[in-house]
Amino acid sequence: MKKIFIITGANRGLGSAFVNVLMEDQNNFVISISRSVNEVQKTYAESNFYFLNIDLSQNSIDKKITILKKLINTEAIYFINNASIIKPISKIEDLDETNIDHTLSVNVKSTILITKYLLQHFNQNKLSFINISSGAANRPISHWSLYCSSKAFIKMFFNVAETEYPKHRFFNIDPGVMDTNMQENIRESNFPEVSNFKNLKVDGKLKSPKEVAIEILNTVI
């Protein structure tokens, strides 16, 4: 029986690496919840890959994901909560309402809605929820107020969900620092700890997304 993998932010970075690794096994069916597909993903067979075009910052996500009922039967489901945005990197006094709404919609609200939907409609399936967390969920980083707070929120949300639904599995996994567009954005930003992140790149201490994807999948499958 195929395994179903629902991945947010699957078009680049770690999300794209998850897809590429999973596509090596024909028993996997990946549902990408993203705003676009990359060139490699366009080549994948419909029998193993489905693109669900959703902007996680917008409303009505719960209505848009009803298509999952047509795509999933009794298979084991793995929801990989990967999508998140770190911008704006700025002091709290410089945040505006648009920044706040956008970041929290992607990093928090969308995760809650997808998790809720899966528990409502696929409670009889074997469900595994994998939150791609961050060290920022555990320590404050100046100018990262929205990112740190949203990462801490979802970590606790999954911890609570685990107490409510003990028959399902919930993971909070910190993948460490990776060589992704997010790290590039961090290095180009102005905040007190930026030199530390620049040094990670110079010193070759950034993991490859594929390496991290393999490690995480070996843990949760």
From TrEMBL:
Domain of life where this protein originates: Bacteria
Gene Ontology BP terms: tetrahydrobiopterin biosynthetic process
Major place of residence: cytoplasm
Keywords per UniProt: Cytoplasm, NADP, Oxidoreductase
Gene3D superfamilies in the cross-refs: NAD(P)-binding Rossmann-like Domain (3.40.50.720)
Keyword NADP: yes
SUPFAM superfamilies assigned: NAD(P)-binding Rossmann-fold domains (SSF51735)
A single Gene Ontology CC term: cytoplasm
UniProt xrefs under InterPro entries: Biopterin_syn/organic_redct (IPR051721), NAD(P)-bd_dom_sf (IPR036291), SDR_fam (IPR002347)
Pfam families: adh_short (PF00106)
Entry keyword annotation includes Manganese: no
Entry's localization field: Cytoplasm
Coiled coil: none
GO MF annotation, one: sepiapterin reductase (NADP+) activity
UniProt protein name: SDR family NAD(P)-dependent oxidoreductase
Organism, scientific name: Paucihalobacter ruber
Lineage, uppermost ranks: Bacteria, Pseudomonadati, Bacteroidota, Flavobacteriia, Flavobacteriales
